[in-house]
Amino acid sequence: MNMKNYMIYFIVITALVLASCASASEEVATAPVSEVEVAAAEPTEIVTLNEAVEIIDGTELTVERIEARPVISTRTDISFAFEVPRLSAQNQVLIISTLQPLLPVDPQVLVQYYFDEAEIKGINTDLAIAQMIYNTNELKYGGLFAINNPGGLGMENNARSRQKFDTLQMGVRAHIQHLKGYASSSDLRTNVVDSRRSILITEDFLGNVGTLGQLFFTWYDYEGVAEKVIDILNRQYTSVL
Q: What is the pLDDT of residues 25-80, one digit of tens each?
């Protein structure tokens, strides 16, 4: 092989190698990402930076503390419904007040109803109040309060099927009881005002959801509600905690 033929051979081989590398790189870039990889890439924590004043050796110093809190998602276990709330009653009053709500009562009264009734049934007020805010279009829709039904019981069908309650506290109690019905099959025992509980029993929904996503999809029977309620919840955590 003379020098000229050798150079041509070398150029051809080099071009083929470069083309092969480019093809392999393109395949890696366009390879489909598995659901497991997507799930792993999603954020699992909300990180916040808080400042605290500490006295060190007699001197006041401002210390920055990083706190991480789990992000609530549609895959969050239903046991979240029974967790101790992260938001206090004061936090909730502040959140509701900033929404400029159309309420028949003071925000403090509404929040206290939720805390009182949720404590009796062991329900997380963070979840219940976030759902109530969603139902009422961030408290701008007064129709549900006109019938004392902040939980929107029956609203998944049509206006005629919406439940009416004698008092707002009774409506809050029904909301808490219905939420517990989806999350647990335990007996409510006393003061049962949730007339739609029988539906949970006949449709085999009682205590039969495993995640928050399943909870809200089963409750409303259409896509997207879980994401909206959970977005409200995470925004509350980010703004207050």
A: 444 444 444 434 434 444 555 554 555 555 656 666 665 555 555 589 999 999 99
Torsion angle of C-alpha atoms 201, 207, 208, 210, degrees rounded to 10: 160
CA 179-184-187 angle, 5° bins: 100
DSSP one-letter string for 64-118: EEEEEEEPP-TTSBGGGGGSPPSS-HHHHHHHHHHT----SS-HHHHHHHHHHHH
Q: Collapsing DSSP states into helix, strand and coil, what is residue 11?
A: helix
Structure tokens at 188: 């409510």
Q: In whole angstroms, what is the distance from residue 228 CA to residue 231 CA?
A: 5
pTM: 0.72
Q: For the segment 101-125, what is each residue's pLDDT rounded down to a tens digit?
A: 889 999 999 999 999 999 999 999 9
Q: 189, 126 in Cβ contact below 8 A?
A: no
CA torsion through residues 20, 21, 22, 23, sign: positive
226: helix, strand or coil: helix
Cα 228 to Cα 75, 156, 213: the distances in Å are: 14, 15, 11
